[in-house]
Amino acid sequence: MENLGYLMAAYAVIWAVVFGYILFMQRKQRRLQRQLDRLQESEDTAKTIDNE
Amino acid sequence: MNGGKRLRDSILFGLGLALMMAALYMVFIYVPTEKNAGIVQRIFYFHVPVAWVAFLAFFITFIFSILYLWKRVTKWDAIAHASAEIGVLFTTLVLITGPIWAKPAWGIWWTWDARLTTSLVLWLIYVAYLLVRSFATESARGARYGAVVGIVGFIDVPVVFIAVSLWRTQHPTAIIFEGGLTTPMLMTLVVCVVAFTVLYVLLTIQSANLKAMQANIERLRNIYLE
Fold first, then answer.
1. Phi/psi at B136 (5° precision)
2. Dihedral (C-alpha) B67, B84, B128, B216: value to the nearest 10 degrees?
């Protein structure tokens, strides 16, 4: 079981980076969704003003 | 997202998860420990598939960059960009797991041999690609410049691959193609390669969708501001 630490470190790094990237994408998706919602709200407000 | 795409993503996710579980089982339980190198040789079963995914990702960037310059379809640029991002991520993993394996195997973390140096150059080229994209003042211009870097930068991929044959290196030659693996070792490697390829496809689809969404938001914002 010599060098088990190196083996564990290599696999831990791979999973940490992959999960980190998935987390990064999830946060980005939430941020983009908020931006899209704000744009939609602005458009709706502009339409209401135009109709009035 | 429509039903078809949702189903495709669910199938890919299930398949990826099952394959990754199988890969972990094979790496840690099924495959026998290599006699000379010891337990640390098991890094090989993830190190090689991670490198394969990096090469595949840059190849996809290369193809979709050509297609984007030719037809100017935003979705294709999003795929090229997403693939380059994932390629950089996986090259980073190659550059981290390699030295972790090198230390117990060679007694050193790093050496400036041809395979390692060309891999580092590859990483730097595609980091430059991402920087070109992020520093561009206009997204269409960033896409064009990025596509050029994505095409020219791909020249380094075959150089990395054949570096061990062209020069004398510390890094071993491709024993996979020389019949240097026993059947359980080869089977484990194949399962790991397939699992990581499915993971790559999943990540690229999600990332490309986000990039297309971001481009649409920018376009809508510009229309709205006008």
1. -65, 135
2. 70
Tokens 């999830």 locate to A26
The answer to whether the beta carbons of residues B67 and B81 sit under 8 Å apart is: no
Provide the CB-side half-sphere exposure for A29 (13 A, CA).
11
- In chain B, which residues have their Cβ closer than 8 Å to the Cβ of A25? 203, 206-207, 210
Contact call for residues B30 and B184 (beta carbons, < 8 A): yes
- With bands split at pLDDT 50, 70 and 90, how would you rate the model's confidence at B138? confident
Q: Are A6 and B100 in contact (CB under 8 A)?
A: yes
Would you list the domain boundaries of chain B? 43-225
Interface check B206 vs A, CB under 8 A: yes
Segment B174-203, tens digit of pLDDT? 666 666 788 999 999 999 999 999 999 999
pTM, two decimals, is 0.91
Using one digit for the tens of pLDDT, what is the confidence trace for B30-59? 999 988 888 999 999 999 999 999 999 999
* Residue B217 touches chain A, beta carbons under 8 Å: yes
Which residue has 């095409």 as its token pair? B151
Residue B129's closest CA among B118, B113, B116, B145? B145
- Tokens representing B39? 């337990």
